[in-house]
Design a protein that fits this description.
Order of helices and strands: HEEHHH
Largest sheet: 2 strands, antiparallel
Distance between the termini: 41 Å
Shape: elongated
Oligomer: single chain
Number of strands: 2
Strand content: 15-25%
Strand order of the largest sheet: 1-2
């Protein structure tokens, strides 16, 4: 999917993942986290845990009314 490819390309450019292309038929590509990418795992897991722990409160939130100036 092209949006997945673009997303992977973005994190590759930011040096969060490594990309290894294998010359096979069909061609295959392996991705792995760089050292910098691995350093993101803990903060992402913390955010995931917070969201899971607060899911009932988050589900109960109502959309905020926005100001629409004319």
């Amino acid at each position: 999917d092209s949006s997945t490819s673009r997303g992977l390309g973005d994190v590759y450019k930011r040096q969060l993942i490594d990309r290894q292309v294998h010359e096979s038929v069909p061609p295959t590509v392996d991705y792995s986290l760089t050292e910098l990418g691995q350093r993101l795992v803990e903060p992402i897991e913390m955010i995931y845990d917070w969201a899971r722990d607060n899911a009932p409160a988050l589900d109960a939130l109502q959309p905020r009314q926005t100001s629409r100036r004319r």
